[in-house]
Structure formats: structure tokens, C-alpha cells
Write a structure and sequence with these properties.
Blueprint lengths: L1 E2 L3 E2 L4 E14 L1 H12 L3 E5 L5 E2 L18 E4 L2 E10 L12 E8 L6 E5 L12 E6 L10 E6 L2 H7 L25 H4 L12 H4 L4 E13 L2 H10 L4 E5 L6 E2 L15 E5 L2 E10 L12 E8 L6 E5 L12 E6 L12 E6 L15
Antiparallel strand pairs: 1-3, 2-3, 3-12, 4-5, 4-6, 7-8, 7-10, 8-9, 10-11, 13-14, 13-15, 16-17, 16-19, 17-18, 19-20
The structure holds zinc ion.
The site of zinc ion (ZN) has 7 residues, from loops.
């Protein structure tokens, strides 16, 4: 997660945040064959027990629930018919096309179930249900659905060229060898998946099939701090850690929540806390992830600042990860003062003070 500098509107602080990670999954043989086909600018569907051809191929039969295999795969065309569509007038980051486009369900020639993809057109008036569209392929296909950049309407002349195959016709051979930059020379990759293909020379896809895909997931949003949190962040910009005390139970919350979750009353009494305390609970982070700033293993811990009643989440450094323990006394290590802003990152981490550990009974009520 990354955060840009906070904006101060006078009352509350806000800052743009971006949460992102790469979603990685293995494909298995059926979806792997689909992805491998895309890498070669080919589309493959799967025949189900009720004689439908579904694209992308499904791994289990929708009627019998039996597993389907690569023996059930069938090639389909990279062009087809728009079944339905919706116009996206304001695309957002990460969508297939940067300018306005349509999301459409497209039944590819040779398939009977539609594929969801993008159609690029000059405007909604250029789209109709039932029109013919064809895939525009990436120049550098990777074995991912984005290898088809989008579909585009086929002009009247092109419609004749592509119209030879009745959509969904039983047993019709899809016109996969139509005009366009298709990797027809590697047709053998699919044949090789069937018994009839035995003996074919192995192709690149057989020796190096796609077995996994990576899908980046991103969320951009603006975080607006509450008035109480804003006071906390402004305090940090001055090197102060500010909490609030509940007037009913006297518990001190840091960062302040604005209200006591036990008593349900506003916490208006501001309390300044020292920048030292004890580790209550912690975890050793061993898993690398996107955007990680510290090399694992490292320790993320709840630090109970002296005088506070709940822990404050931060990093523990200056000690081996396997030496961190509950009750360890720690103090904040601050960035150079000229680098301070309205952020908890003013504190680089906490490190041990070397004093004797706190007794468990002294913090057991704060876990
Ligand atoms: Zn309370």
C-alpha cells in the first residue's frame, strides 16, 4: 500500500491510497490449454455433455458435473456475433480500452455460449446486437485473456469473408484460417491434445504450456481521516503521539477512535503519550509481497505505549526477529525532524530499550 502526502482541508486530513497485489493462480490443464491457445492467437472452447461449446472452456460439465478434459476441447474462431452489449462511456484504469468502448457478450463462430470481452467502436451507434466482430490480437501475446486486446466490428466486406460459418452450427469447422495475423502454422498444439494427434511433432506449446496466470489487482481511493485521527496525524507532524481518554471508563485509545467502543460516548479528553512502551502481541512476517519495503523476516507488533490501553501497530527493528517477545520494552526511532509529515511513518520503527521485560500480568488486560 502506498500513500501520497496528505491534503489538509482545515478540518480533516485526506490522502490518496493505492492497494495493489498480484493475484496468481494455476490454470490446470483445461484453462491452461485456453491460455496456451491465446498465446498462439487461437481460441479454444470445450464441448459439454449437452453438446454446447463453451468459451472459455469450463473444467466441469455444467449438466453432469463430471470433470472435462483436454480431449473435450474444440477450436473456435476468433470472430463471432455480438449477443448483447453495454457502452462504457467513461473507462477507468485497467479496463481493456482507454477510450470509450463496449463490454459485449460475443458468441464466437463454432461456439454456442458467449464470451465476455471488449468491443472497440467509434460510438454506441456503431454497435448492434447481431453484428459480426473479430479479435484484435496483442503483438506480444503472453497466454492471458488480454492477448485479445479487444474485438472490432467487421466491415460489410469483411462480414462476407467471415460469414462462411453459421454461428453455433453443429459440426461446422470454424473459419480459423481467415485473414489476419493468426498463427495457423501451429495448429498442431490442439490436435496434439487428442488421440488423433499422437505422433505429431511436439510444438512449442506442448513443451511449454501455460500453467499459471498473474492478474494484477489494484484499488485506488482517497482516505479521509476523522477529525480525531486528523488531530493524531497533526500531532505526529510535531513529534507528538496523541490519544484520547474515555470519560466513562478512563481508557486511553491511540490512535483515537472518536468514541469509546465500550461505553459509546465521545472521547474528547486529549492525552499525549510517550514514545515508548512494551510489545504485547506480534507476528514475524516471512512472506514477501508486492510493495514490501523491508526484507523478511521482520516483526510487526502491537506496542502498548505507556499510559495507553490499546496497542499501537508498528514495526520492531534493531533486534533479530526471533528474539522479539511479549513484554519486551521498546522505544520509537524517529526519522530526521525535517522529514516529518502527517504520517505514522515519521516513526521508522520501534527498537528494544534493553530494560527488563514487563511482567505478563501488567499487560494481559491489554491484549
Ligand atoms: Zn469507555
Amino acid at each position: 500500500m502506498t500513500a501520497a502526502p496528505a491534503t489538509d482541508s482545515g478540518r480533516v486530513l485526506s490522502a490518496p491510497l493505492r492497494v495493489a497485489f498480484d493475484y496468481t493462480r494455476s490454470t490446470g490443464p483445461v484453462l491452461g490449454a485456453f491460455m496456451t491457445g491465446l498465446r498462439e492467437r487461437r481460441v479454444v472452447g470445450i464441448r459439454t455433455s449437452d453438446d454446447r461449446v463453451v468459451v472459455p472452456p469450463v473444467e466441469f460439465d455444467p449438466v453432469t458435473y463430471a470433470p472435462l478434459s483436454t480431449d473435450d476441447l474444440v477450436p473456435v474462431a476468433d470472430h463471432g456475433t455480438v449477443v448483447t452489449w453495454t457502452w462504457v462511456s467513461e473507462p477507468v484504469a485497467g479496463q481493456p480500452v482507454a477510450e470509450p468502448f463496449a463490454f459485449a457478450l460475443i458468441t464466437l463462430d463454432g461456439a454456442t455460449a458467449p464470451l465476455l470481452h471488449a468491443v472497440k467502436a467509434s460510438g454506441p451507434s456503431a454497435l448492434t446486437t447481431g453484428m459480426t466482430v473479430r479479435a484484435v490480437w496483442s503483438d506480444t501475446p503472453q497466454g492471458h485473456i488480454t492477448d485479445i486486446r479487444f474485438f472490432e466490428p467487421v466491415a460489410a466486406a469483411g462480414r462476407e469473408r467471415y460469414g462462411a460459418t453459421e454461428p453455433g452450427a453443429e459440426g461446422a469447422a470454424p473459419a480459423v484460417d481467415g485473414p489476419g495475423p493468426r498463427a495457423t502454422k501451429e495448429r498442431g498444439w490442439l490436435d496434439g491434445a487428442t488421440p488423433s494427434g499422437a505422433g505429431n511433432a511436439p510444438t512449442a506449446s506442448e513443451s511449454d504450456p501455460v500453467t499459471g496466470i498473474v492478474t494484477p489487482v489494484e484499488l485506488d481511493y482517497v482516505y479521509e481521516a476523522s477529525p480525531e485521527e486528523s488531530a493524531f496525524f497533526r500531532g505526529l507532524a510535531e513529534g507528538r503521539i496523541l490519544g484520547q481518554r474515555c470519560p466513562a471508563c478512563q481508557k486511553v485509545y491511540v490512535p483515537p477512535r472518536g468514541a469509546c467502543p465500550v461505553d459509546g460516548v465521545p472521547t474528547t479528553d486529549e492525552v499525549e503519550l510517550p514514545d515508548h512502551g512494551i510489545v504485547t502481541t506480534y507476528c514475524v512476517v516471512n512472506v514477501p509481497f508486492l510493495g514490501q519495503k523491508i526484507t523478511p523476516p521482520y516483526v510487526s507488533a502491537y506496542v502498548l505505549l505507556e499510559g495507553a490501553d490499546i496497542g499501537f501497530l508498528h514495526l520492531i527493528q534493531g533486534v533479530a526477529a526471533d528474539e522479539v517477545r511479549m513484554g519486551m520494552r521498546v522505544k520509537a526511532v524517529w526519522k530526521p525532524r525535517e522529514e516529518w509529515g502527517t504520517t505514522v511513518e515519521n516513526i521508522l520503527h520501534f527498537e528494544p530499550t534493553g530494560e527488563p521485560d514487563a511482567d505478563f500480568e501488567s499487560f494481559r488486560a491489554h491484549l
